[in-house]
Amino acid sequence: MENETLAKQEIKDSLRLSNTILKLLGFTLDKPATVSDAVVQKLLFIATIVIITIHVLSELACLYVTFITTPQVDQVVPLLHIVGYGTLGILKFTVLCSKRKVFAQLLSDLATIWPVPPLEKEAQGLKNRNLRTLRLMHSWYFALNESGTLFYIITPIGLYIYYHIRGQAYAIKTVWRSWYPFNIYQQEWIHVLIYIFEIFSGQSCVWAMIGSDLLFTGMVNHIILLLKILQQRLRNLGRTKSSSEEDGKKLVECIKLHQRLIKYCKDLENAFSLVNLINICLSSVNICCVLFVIVLIEPRLGLSNKLFFGASLIQIGLICWYGEDLIQENANIAEAAYNSNWYNLNLSSRRRLAFLIQRAQKPIAFTAMGFTNISLVTYSAILTRSYSYFTLLYTMYSEG
C-alpha cells in the first residue's frame, strides 16, 4: 500500500504542469478536499465551458459572414487557423470531461505497475533521466504556446503605441476576428469588456489544448519508461548466479508486466483515440493556413503567426514522436529478450521467452480511431498534405 501511495505521488508530480493547467479550467482528476474547493471547481468549469463555446461560435460566425460577404481567399483563409485551433481546443476539452472517470482510472492503474524504490541502479538512473526530460519538454511546450498567445494579445496594443508615438491615428480592435450581434465600438466600456473577454477565452482554448496534450504525452512517456525498464530486466536474465527457479520467476514477472502494459496501452488508446483523430484532421488545415498567412497576407502579425506555426508543428509532432517511440520501444522488447542469456534458462523458461518475443513483434500503437497509427510516418503525411493545401491556396490567390 505504501508503494502504491508513493507511486501515485510520483506520477502526480510528473504531471504537475498538466494538472495545474487543467485545474485552472475547473477540470481535475482528484476529488475536491472540501466543499468550497468543489464549488470553486464547478464554477471554473462552467465558466470555461461558456467562455470557450462563445469564443468558438463567434469565430465560426465571423468566418461564415466573411465567406458570404467577401468570399476571397485572402479574406477567408486568415480566419481558418484560428477557428481550427479554437475548435480543436474545445473538442479536446469536451473529450477530457466526458471521460474524466476513465482517465482517473488509468492513472490509478498506472500506479500499480509504477517502478518505485528500491530499484536497480540502471533502472533508477533511467527513471530519473526520463522524468527530467519529460519535465523539460513539458516546460518548453507550455512556454512556446503561451508566448504565441501573448503576442496575439499584445499586438493590437503594441500597434496602437507604435502609431501613437509616430503621431498617427490607430484604432485598437480585438484580439481575435470574431462576430458579435452588436456594435462593440459603440461605447468604450463595451469594447474594453470584449477585449478582456477575448483574452480569457483565447487563453482558455490554449490551456485546454496544452493540458490535453501534456496529459497524453505524460502518460505515454510513462509507458515508454516501463518498457525500457522491462528491456533491462530481460537483458539481465541468465547473467547472474541466480538459480533456474529464480530466473523463471523473474521471467514470469516480466511477462506479466508486458501483458499489463499492452492492456494499459489499449485502454489509453480507447480514451484518446477520438482526440488523436481530431488532431490529425485539423492539423494539416491549421499548418497550411497559418503558413499562407505568414507568406502572403499579414506581415504585421508575423511574429505571432510564426509562433503559432511553430506551436502547430510541435503540437502534432510531439504526439507523433511519442507514438513512434512507443512502437519502437515495444519492438525492442523482442530484441532485449533475444540478447539475454536465454541459453542458461531451463526449457520451460525458454518457451515462455519465445512466446514473449513473438508477442513483442506484434506492434503496439496509438491510432486515430483505427484509421492510421500515430507515428512519424503520420507526421510526414500531415506535413505533405499541408504543403499540398498551401500550393493550392497559393495558386488560387495568384490567379484571383
Provide structural commentary:
The protein is mainly α. The protein has one domain (about 1-400). It is about 80% helix and about 0% strand. The protein has 11 helices and no strands. The protein has helices spanning about 1-15, 15-25, 35-70, 75-100, 100-115, 120-165, 190-235, 245-295, 300-340, 345-360, 375-400. Helix 2 (about 15-25) runs antiparallel to helix 7 (about 190-235), helix 6 runs antiparallel to helix 9 (about 300-340) and helix 8 (about 245-295) packs parallel to helix 10. The longest helix has about 55 residues, at about 245-295. It is a multi-pass membrane protein. This is Odorant receptor. It comes from Pieris macdunnoughi. Belongs to the insect chemoreceptor superfamily. Heteromeric odorant receptor channel (TC 1.A.69) family. One of its GO terms (molecular function) is odorant binding.
List the helices and strands and how they pair.
Blueprint: H1 2-14, H2 16-24, H3 35-69, H4 73-98, H5 100-113, H6 121-165, H7 188-235, H8 244-297, H9 302-338, H10 347-360, H11 376-399
Descriptive keywords:
single chain; 400 residues; mainly alpha; elongated
Provide a short characterization of the protein structure.
GO terms for molecular function: odorant binding; olfactory receptor activity. With 400 residues, the protein is an all-alpha fold.
